[in-house]
Amino acid sequence: MIDIFGVPLLALLGQMLLGLVNGSFYALLSLGLAVIFGLLNVINFAHGAFYMMGAFAAWGLLTWTGIGYFGALLLVPPLIGLLGLVVDRLLLKRIAHLDPLYGLLLTFGLALVLEGGFRYQFGVSGESYEVPESLQGALDVGFMVIPKYRLWVIVVSTLVCLSTWLIIEKTRLGSYLRAATENPTLTQAFGINVPLMISLTYGFGVALAGLAGVMAAPIFQVAPLMGSNLIIVVFAVVVIGGMGSILGSVVTGLGLGLVEGLTKVYWPEASSTVVFVLMALVLVLRPAGLFGRSA
Amino acid sequence: MSAFSKKRWLLVGMAGLLLAAPAVFYPVFLMKLLCFALFASAFNLMLGYTGLLSFGHAAFFGGAAYVTGYLLQSQGVGTLTGIACGVLFALVLGALVGLLAIRRQGIYFAMITLALAQMVYFLCLELPQTGGEDGLQGVPRGSLLGLNLSNDLTLYYVVLAFTGAGILLIWRTIHSPFGRILLAIRENEPRALSLGYDVARYKWLAFVLSAGLSGLAGALKTLVFKFATLTDAHWHQSGEVVLMTILGGIGTLTGPLLGAATLVTLEDQLADKVGSLVTVILGATFVICVLLFPRGIVGAASEFIERLLGKSSPPPLP
Question: How far apart are CA A219 and CA A73, in angstroms?
Fold first, then answer.
């Protein structure tokens, strides 16, 4: 058996895999935050709440209508996205002219309402959700055994992140989006419906959170507060990566998940704080973030 | 009667009311109110007078609460030493967090303070001295200058003296040349910079002062309730102090006091009636406040009075 700094290689690889799974969620969530921030200039504090609702929606679909995991994977993101559209139209549009900080405060209040409501309805401990049958079991890749579902999460979230990047960088719709991010007034003058784009962008970013929620449901307990602690780590990821680039937030998310996994092996007590320590380091060395442009 | 003496009479009246208040209200409730009034005022020094939204002030409040509680309970130090060490801890922590956070502005500042405060929260959860999930229970109040603090009424006047001194310090700071420079930074940072002021240094000093006073509020809170728990350091606490300040009115001296009083009373009244729905009500208050009157109660009231008197429109929001 090969040891690396006194830890068996297989245990190390297992933790790295777990770290990548967490990193996939960081990547999906920070991607949504970055897309929303780019156009709306709002840090969506309710992102964790939408993630939580995604998981609950998957659970509800299975419990009440019998629609399984793959159905939920298709149905939930548009559903959560629609909710996001409503939130943008009803609430965020009204404060768009104020300082971006008011957007943070508004979405913070919204997160409290949503999480409080779910906690009132479902209690703190929450519900559990089974891994779908076709993704149960493990895959033997020769040197180690990988649980199928974990691999699935990493692959799907990486694909989703990459296609989001492609849409934004390579399509006409993406070019409108980038133009509106750069200069909304001028873009509107060219006849593009910027307010609609803003609503759609918020809906899309929130839908990504919903998707992450569905994928998280079989791994973590489906609980009202599942998003509220995650979202702060994601904020740290965003600060580390910088808001400048889409690809940057994806790479940072996956990378930090990996770092967290490794810390769990070598210094378990520090694993909950390592991301914040890294954030502090990045702020000292490169205040704009690893991939960010200086504000 | 000149405006100055009118203000002075108002102050005397308020002091009289506070001195007599325990005759009507439950002292522990009043002390909670005072602690949060100080906390919100200290926070307002950052948001209202320097224009920086910190989303991590629970770290100073909760951190000091833990330090004071630990020293009083396990080390048997005097009450005054306990409070002083709590404040000192908050000052040092504020100095460190401030150094990192003031490197960015606006939303980033909020996220950085939030993330660093979460680190403090995990420390409170995991350090062997802090009692994990339970926190510190049964912290002795001790005595101060020969006064036995286990009496609620005695403690009330001590807490009143401390919070009064803290709020007075904030008032003095705001009306000092230092406070004017902070306002200048809030209004137009590049111009303050071009006038030769070391903007980063001023922001940092304001942050440290705000952290220290938040620590004082946290230390006093431990004395009042005889416990320090994870709730004190949780980011919900950071959010709550933001809500108090916004609800009352940012950038006003009375706003945070009024906001803290409103919220503490609301929580006190609702806690046994609606249970866990309190969070929903708090969140809804947040949303409504931001949507309908972002200037808070004091701001909305003075705007209304000014409109009645036909004065000019209010200054733009930060």
Answer: 15
- CA distance readout (Å), B150 to B9, B51, B146, B232: 33, 40, 12, 22
Structure tokens at A279: 């954030």
Per the CB < 8 Å rule, is B126 touching A115? no
pLDDT in the model for residue B280: 87
**Which residue has tokens 């009132």?**
A120
Residues of chain B contacting A287 with CB distance shorter than 8 Å: 103-104
3-class DSSP assignment, residue B234? coil
- Cα–Cα dist B43/B196, whole Å: 27
pLDDT for residue B250 is more than 90: no
pLDDT at residue B95, rounded to an integer: 93
**pLDDT of amino acid B318:** 52
- As beta bridge partners, residue B295 has none
**φ, ψ at B14 (rounded to 5°):** -65, -45
| Sequence spans of domains, chain B | 26-233
Which helix (H) or strand (E) covers residue B87, if one does? helix B79-101
DSSP run (H or E) holding A215:
helix A194-216
d(CA B172, CA B181): 14
The model's pLDDT over A113-139, given as tens digits with 9 standing for 90+, comes to 998 899 888 888 878 888 887 778 777
Q: Tell me the average pLDDT across A266-276.
A: 81
| Domain boundaries, given as residue ranges, for chain A | 23-224
- Answer whether B111 sits within 8 Å of A273, measured CB to CB: no
Residues 259-278 of A with CB under 8 A from B: 269, 272-273, 275-277
Residues in chain A: 295
3-state secondary structure of A139: strand
Chain B residues with CB under 8 Å of A275 CB are 115
B202-224 confidence digits (pLDDT tens) = 989 999 999 999 999 999 998 88
Alpha-carbon gap: A61 to the closest alpha carbon of chain B (Å): 25
* DSSP 8-state secondary structure symbol assigned to residue B317: P
**Which 3 state secondary structure label does DSSP give B143?**
strand
Rg (CA), chain A: 19
b (16+ CB within 10 A) / e for B102-140: bebebbbbbbbbbbbbbbbbbbbbeeeebbeeebbeebe
DSSP 8-class letter at B228: B
- 8 A C-beta contact, residue A152 and residue A20: no
Q: Is the ipTM of this complex over 0.90?
A: no
Residue A55 at interface with chain B, using a CB cutoff of 8 Å: no
With residue A274 as reference, give the H or E element that holds it: helix A274-285
Nearest to B208 by CA among B184, B236, B188, B182: B182
Chain A contact set for B287 (CB, 8 A): 91, 106, 109-110, 113
Tokens read off for A247: 């690809």
Furthest-apart CA pair in chain A: how many Å? 66
